[in-house]
Amino acid sequence: MSMSSNYSGGSGPDFNLSDEILAVILTDPYDQLDLARKITSMAIASRVSKLESEVTRLRQIMYEKDRVAFDLEEKVSQLERAYQESESRLKTVIDENTFKGLRLIGDDCKENGQ
């Protein structure tokens, strides 16, 4: 920035402040700095508060997603158990039918004299 943009015609700095603000602003530079520090602290506190609210909201979303994931994992586990039980029953039925079939073949062979 050039010096001419910071100063207005030699009458002092021009910070583009409205007349209302200039009418109430403190004249002592140290008081101005103290006020600026307070305003900055308020702005930071406001921002921190908003960020904390956002963190709380995001944690709630994360908790809900974790709960859904847990429920889905539980369903998968139940389905895997049901699959294993069904597969075991199927193998048992196949083994029984195979044994019955072999026994019938053996009985036929005995009847036919083979």
The total strand number stands at 0
Radius of gyration: 42 Å
The DSSP helix count reads: 3
Shape: rod-shaped
Average pLDDT score: 85
**Helical residue percent band:** over 70%
User: Biggest β-sheet, characterized?
Assistant: none
Task: Give me the secondary-structure category.
Answer: mainly alpha
User: What is the CA–CA distance across the termini?
Assistant: 113 Å
Oligomer: single chain
**Strand content range:** under 5%
Structural notes for this entry:
Helices cover 82% and strands 0% of the residues. It is mainly alpha-helical. The chain is rod-shaped, with a radius of gyration of 42 Å.
Quick summary:
It contains 3 helices and no strands. The chain has 114 residues and is mostly helical.
Keywords, separated by commas or semicolons:
mainly alpha; 3 helices; disordered N terminus; rod-shaped; 114 residues
What topology emerges from the helices and strands here?
Elements: H1 3-6, H2 19-24, H3 29-112
